[in-house]
Amino acid sequence: FDGASFAVCTIDPAQDEIRLWHRGQDGSVLGAFDRVNEMLAAEGRALGIAMNGGMYHDDRRPVGHYVEDGVETMRLITSDGPGNFGLLPNGVFCIAGRTAQVLETRAFAARRPDCIHATQTGPMLVIDGALHPRFQPDSTSRFVRNGVGVRADGTVIFAISDDPVTFHQFGRLFRDGLDTPNALYIDGNVSRLYAPALGRHDFGFPMGPIVGTVVTAD
Questions:
Q1: pTM, full prediction
Q2: What is the per-residue pLDDT across 128-137, written as a single tens digit (0 to 9) for each?
Q3: Which of 10, 48, 79, 148 is the most exposed place for a label (fewest CB within 10 A)?
């Protein structure tokens, strides 16, 4: 798209279970796709696809609102602040049973949907069909970036750039290339993908939250 390469994973949440993971049963931060797979193996299950699932502090605590299996471990943040997270509007990826949505943070605060899993990050890439107002087409800030968008029919799209891209280019990928009226930036530079069908198992330093699908183990 627009001269850059991207890996894209399309998910029907009515068919594929989407979850978030942060800590294991012993309380330690999982931080890696392999550790999530080890935990799922005890249930006879495995990761289908996965990505880093939200911004995190140095100790890998989530920066924004975080809910896992119905338990909130970080409150919603509605104020602006430093960095990409504070570049309002930001948003929340909410998984509620077999549906999912991306909501701008203040709209989320007003509605308070019943999310089984939720992660707040930012900035929003696309808001009701419009690019984030702060994105500049001539920006020189380029990173490998990953994000999530939801189509009007409820289809969830995860994407990660193979090449460094600007926010404007990444937002247009979701709006114009992937047809998602609402899309959320997950992170950049630390972005990683686990997708065996694509031959991808990206390694690197430990992550914070991880988002992905669950399948029956072979």
A1: 0.97
A2: 999 999 999 9
A3: 79
Q: Which among 102, 112, 37, 49 has a CA at the least distance from the CA of 75?
A: 112
**Cα 96 from Cα 177, distance rounded (Å):** 26
Two tokens at 210? 């991880």
Q: Which residues pair with 156 in a beta bridge?
A: 11, 150
Contacts of residue 121, defined as CB under 8 A and 6 or more positions apart, other chains included, come to 54, 55, 63, 64, 85, 90, 91, 93, 184, 185, 186, 187
CA separation for the pair 160, 185 (Å, rounded): 10
87-143 pLDDT per residue, tens: 999 999 999 989 999 999 999 999 999 999 999 999 999 999 999 999 999 999 999
State the distance between the two ends of the chain, measured CA to CA, in whole angstroms: 34
The residue type of 118 is A
Residue with tokens 């942060």: 22
Contact 108, 76 (CB under 8 A): yes
Q: What does the pLDDT look like over 200-210, one tens digit per residue?
A: 999 999 999 99
Taking the C-alpha atoms of residue 45 and residue 208, their distance in angstroms, rounded to an integer, is 21
Strand-by-strand arrangement of the 117-121 sheet: 71-74, 66-68, 117-121, 91-96, 99-104
Q: Helix (H) and strand (E) counts for the chain?
A: 3, 16
Based on its alpha-carbon atoms, the radius of gyration of the chain, rounded to whole angstroms, reads 16
